[in-house]
Amino acid sequence: QVHLVESGGGLVQVGGSLRLSCAASGRTFSNYTISWFRQAPGKEREFVAGIGWSTGIAYYADSVKGHFTISRDNAKNTLYLEINSLKPEDTAVYYCHAASPTEGDYWGQGTQVTVSS
Fold this sequence. Notes:
Layout: E1 3-7, E2 10-13, E3 18-25, E4 33-39, E5 46-52, E6 58-60, E7 68-73, E8 78-83, E9 92-100, E10 104-107, E11 111-116
Parallel strand pairs: 2-11
Antiparallel strand pairs: 1-3, 3-8, 4-5, 4-9, 5-6, 7-8, 9-10, 9-11
């Protein structure tokens, strides 16, 4: 059973920065893509960024390119999302997601990011 635990969210001011973490356990993640999604109040959950666990190839939603950076530490089985120049529209619950073509997909419980102006 895959277990994903997000942390690092909080209340920050406009223009600030945050680094979110997702600790992954329960599998070898070599054939997984690990991603960040977010869900703002009253909106659908949307893809933000993803990375191939073994390849390290990252990809982003157009709306966050240059603003978010995804990375992973294979030794720690941890995924990161660095968010710079935070904007009020970045306010959302951020979720970690792990997907494998053969083992299904899993979600974390989410971490709240609130940007105050």
